[in-house]
Amino acid sequence: QITLKESGPTLVKPTQTLTLTCTFSGFSLNTSGVGVGWIRQPPGKALEWLVIVSSDDDHRHSPSLKNRLTITKDTTKNQVVFTMTNMDPVDTATYYCAHRPSQWGMPTPYFDYWGQGALVTVSS
Amino acid sequence: SYVLTQPPSVSVAPGQTASLTCGGNSIGNKEVHWYQQKPGQAPVLVVYDDSDRPSGIPDRFSGSNSGNTATLTITRVEAGDEANYYCQVWDDSTDHHVVFGGGTKLTVL
In chain A, how long is the greatest CA-to-CA distance? Predict the structure, then answer.
């Protein structure tokens, strides 16, 4: 059974760096083709993909936010850490981590399991 | 970058069929995935690779994709299907990345 859970601050100040941790179980990020991504959703708005890390440590970032995002994986702890720099009130959103499965060792292009989400508010 | 266009809202009576569209340039050449999101909940994958269903998803949910439009079809709509639905593709045309549509709110009358 695959589960993921986001953890981190619920409130950050403008210009600060947001750090969120995704702790997962039921799969390994050592498995070829598997990945963990981060997606956010401002209140009342659509999903926005942010970043993904794969088992081979390949990273893909949203082109519009690339300069602000980093993602690292710790396969021994079954965790993925996400950071976003220079936070602004418009970054207020629920942040989700999600599992990207593999098929025959190759990455698939969708997310089949999601965490419950973490609401992050940016305010002074 | 690649853009996916979804109508903001669709309404359908219970028992009828809902067709939710997702438009994109030559989207028929890409694999499209659909997520259902109910208020206060995380998205749930309901269709992947244009027309496949994850285990546990009713066969009332189906997908198709051709030309510039992908469609999620929900037959025999139930009150519990009321939700936001998002389409998603992997854009490998430039700097490989994930793209979501703006979402469609399905209202069951």
Answer: 48
End-to-end CA distance of chain B: 36
Phi-psi region of A50 (alpha: psi -120 to 50; beta: other; left: phi over 0): alpha
- Average pLDDT, integer, range B83-108: 92
Structure tokens at A70: 């980093």
Q: Which of B42, B54, B86 sits opposite A96 (nearest CB)?
A: B42
Amino acid identity of residue B22, one-letter, is: C
B40–chain A nearest CA distance, Å: 9
Q: What pLDDT digit, counting tens, does each position of A21-78 carry?
A: 999 999 999 999 999 999 999 999 999 999 999 999 999 999 889 899 999 999 999 9
Using a CB-CB cut-off of 8 Å, the residues of chain A touching B39 are none
